[in-house]
Amino acid sequence: MPQHMVRTILHTTNAITADFVQNQFAVETDALAIDDAGVVAAVKTFYDTLIALYPATIAQNGYDVKIYVMPGIEPNYPVFEGTFNLASAPSGAAGPSEIALCTSFQAVKTPGLPQSRRRGRMYIGPFDAAQIDEERPNSTIISALADATAALVDDINTLTDHAFSVYSSVTQTSAPVLDGWVDNAWDVQRRRGVVPSTRTTWTLA
After folding, report:
1. 128: which strand partners?
2. Average pLDDT, stretch 189-195?
3. What is the C-alpha separation between 61 and 83, in angstroms, rounded?
4. 3-class DSSP state for residue 67?
5. Using N-to-C axis directions, what is the helix angle for 36-49 and 139-158, rounded to 10°?
6. Which end of the chain is more exposed for a tag (fewer CB within 10 A), N or C?
7. Has residue 191 got a pLDDT over 90?
8. In the predicted structure, residue 19 carries a pLDDT above the cut 80
9. Dihedral sign (CA 16, 98, 141, 107)
């Protein structure tokens, strides 16, 4: 069954490429070609559902979707590149850009196969500062992300001969996702941190 990796790139209002936010997931398909339009529509629905969680530093328009055949040969160029816009502009005050919430998913557990190679995840963020003012994410945020992820999986699976999957770079195989979860703990994605713009120094008297 052909395997594809779908990479989404959320743009920021400052248009600095290094600040863009990326996530990815795998898709298996028995079709002659992946339904790129269907995949883009499913991805757009996923992010539209989460608009209220994002700050105004996340742009509304010009998000990228790139699809790659896996495992591919380096350099592995995308076989499809498209864009989509959010239904409305995020408007929240910006919290720390490194703070994220992880949505995880996994294939069915199979004897003899390490489950670590059959799990995947996406780190959603950055967040509106009002959403991260507690030690743990609240149940509303957790449920919103869990429901959005389940809907994304279902939307991909609804496409003819497509399945939302987990891809293992070790075995170069993929497996359809069975279920998933969102833990009640924040994650820190240091690569998403902003570049310092000033430095305050001190010296001994």
Report:
1. 94
2. 86
3. 8
4. strand
5. 170
6. C
7. no
8. yes
9. positive
Q: Is 19 helix (H, G, I), strand (E, B) or coil?
A: helix
Residues 71-120 have pLDDT tens digits of 988 899 999 999 999 999 999 999 999 999 999 999 999 998 999 999 99
Whole-number Å distance between alpha carbons of 144 and 150: 10
Please tell me the distance from the alpha carbon of residue 148 to that of residue 43, in angstroms, as a whole number: 10
Token couple for 200? 């305050």
* Banded pLDDT at 121 (limits 50, 70, 90): very high
Q: Find the helix or strand (DSSP H, E) in which 153 lies.
A: helix 139-158
51: three-class secondary structure by DSSP = helix
Count of positions (residues) in the chain: 205
What number of other Cβ atoms are within 10 A of residue 20's Cβ? 17
Return the amino acid letter for 108.
Answer: V
**In contact, 69 and 24? CB cutoff 8 Å:** no
Q: CA-CA distance, 32 to 95, in Å (whole number)?
A: 44
Rounded CA-CA distance 160/40 in Å is: 15
- Mean pLDDT score of the chain: 95
Backbone torsion region of residue 77, taken as left when φ is above 0, otherwise alpha when ψ lies between -120 and 50, otherwise beta: beta
Token pair listed for 92: 């929240």
Sign of CA dihedral 23, 29, 35, 41: negative
